[in-house]
Every structure is written in C-alpha cells, then in structure tokens.
Amino acid sequence: MPTESRCRYSVGDGDSDSDSGGAGHWTPRPLCPTTHPAAAPATSPPDPPHTNPGDPMSDETAYVPPTVWTWNKNNGGQFANINRPVAGPTKDAALPVGKHPLQLYSMATPNGVKATVMLEELLEAGHSGAEYDAWLIKINEGDQFTSGYVEANPNSKIPVMVDHTTTPPTRVFESGSILLYLAEKFGAFLPKTPAERTEALNWLFWQMGSAPYLGGGFGHFYAYAPIKIEYAIDRFAMETKRQLDVLNRNLADREYMAGSEYSIADIAIWPWYGALVKGIAYSAGEFLSVHEYTHVIRWTDQIAARPAVKRGRMINKVWGEDGSQVAERHSASDLEGKTP
User: Fold this and answer.
1) CATH (domain of 114)
2) Burial class (CB in 10 A: 0-12, 13-18, 19+), 14
3) Same domain? 142 vs 239
4) 139 CA to centre of own chain
C-alpha cells in the first residue's frame, strides 16, 4: 500500500504563509513508514510511486537524497530569497550609529523583542546608562548581509548590539548573550546568589536550545514550508507540546521561571512561548491545544502587563496596526501615543 499520502497533508486552508487553525487539534499518530524504517519489516519492498488521481502530490515520489547536496535557490520556501549555504556579506554598507551608548540593530521577531524588552526594563528600573538607539534591520530584504552588519555579527542574525562605552566598542551577538551582557553590565534582572543565578541561567540556556525546535521546526513546517509534511509537523508539534509542558510544570510552583524574581530567563522565554500560548505565533493555538497550559498563560499575561514589555514589543516592528509600530527608537518620545 502506498504510504506517501500519509506523509504529507494539508494544515488549515493550505496557505503556506498562514493557517486558520482549520486542521483542528493535534493528536499523536504513528510514525510515517517511509521515513522511519523500523516501522516496517526490513525485507519489505519499496513502495511504488504514489499516483492517486486528483491528489496534488500524486506525481511525486519519495525524495531520495543525492550523493552530494547542491543548493536550489528556488526551493519555494517563504525565506528562499535570503537563505543561502554560505556566510559573509553580499553588499557594502556601514551600520548607522546614533547618539546613545548602546546601538541595537534588530527587528521585532521573538529574538529581537528579547533585546528591546531588556533595554526598556533597564530604563524603567532607572539605569540611564542603558539609553539606546534601535535601528531596523529588514531581514526579509537582506539587511543582515551588509558588510557593516556582518562585521558586528558574522552569523548574520538579529539582534546584534554594539556597546560604545568600551574602547574599542564591544559587539554582542546572539540574543541570550545580549541579555546576559546587559544583566551583568547593570547588575539587574539576574539573581546574585550562586544557586538562584544558576537557576536563571539554566532557563536562559534552555530557551536558547529549545526555541529552534519551536521556530525552525514546528513553525517552519506548520506555517512556512511550501508543502505540508505530516511527519515533520507531527514530530515538531510533539516536541513543542513537550516544551510547553516543561514550562507549565515549572510555573505551577513559581511566579517566574527561576523562582520569585523576574529575570532574564523570563525575558528570553516570553516572546516565544508567550505568543504561542496566546494563539498568536503561527496561528497554531487551537492546533496545539494551548489552553491546556494554564500556568504558562498566567505567567504570560503577568509579564505582558509590565510597562517595559509593552514598549519593548513595539520597537523595530513594521507590521500590524499602525499604532503598535515603532520602526526605530532613538528616544523615549518615539513611543508616545503608541499601544501594543
């Protein structure tokens, strides 16, 4: 019996860019035999090509990797125009530098929001040395591949921050590194005692290691991939729900991720998993039954109510309602009259 039809399926309305939740709730299902050899006897003959009339996938056979991979620039993915298998700049352009000590180059993705929320929290707490300029990096247009950006971050990802209070200026890339750098520089949002500090760092690094399974795994295959692959969506939906359960169990006994104190662990986790349990990220709330994670929802709402978080989530944002967008931030006045 052909198995290809059990490996690819439609989610929501079938649009690769957005999903309406029409797929309903996710439930565990057996592994796809074509991608998991243990699911079928080793002596089983290969499945014949899948040729059901009327099936949009009927003319395709199972993918067989070539001996040597080659780059297909037109692979159909939403980000095919900026993804490439090499590093380095594609054009010469210096990064702009504003008047403040800290220069942030970012966009209001979950990773970008971590940095802007942290900077706004520092200012809210009275750390005037945390004044900053936030420059918009349009990753969908390849701004992260300019020579100036690559010099600041050779990995060409957002966000990146440059601290001009040091000589020479200090570059800080990777969102978790930015959070830790700022926490140590200003002595804020990181517990002082060894045990509590370590617990906060445990959760900070948990987020850094876990989010790729949510974004690059589940989010990509559920919302952005040009075709819906059942095995991939099932695999990463299962892992995403496991991660949500990890968070939910931890927050059942704690106000914040590392205990009673709000920290960079919360700032790191909230933009990703808060948006997920509110049904915002990937329009996947119903599909993942996010209502089950009541402790995560409580924590999410509590953090979302913080004034600095409300401001931080709008900075470097260029989509949604006009009143919630602050493309660039160079002073507190840039946020006047704005609401998330």
Assistant:
1) 3.40.30.10
2) middle
3) no
4) 13
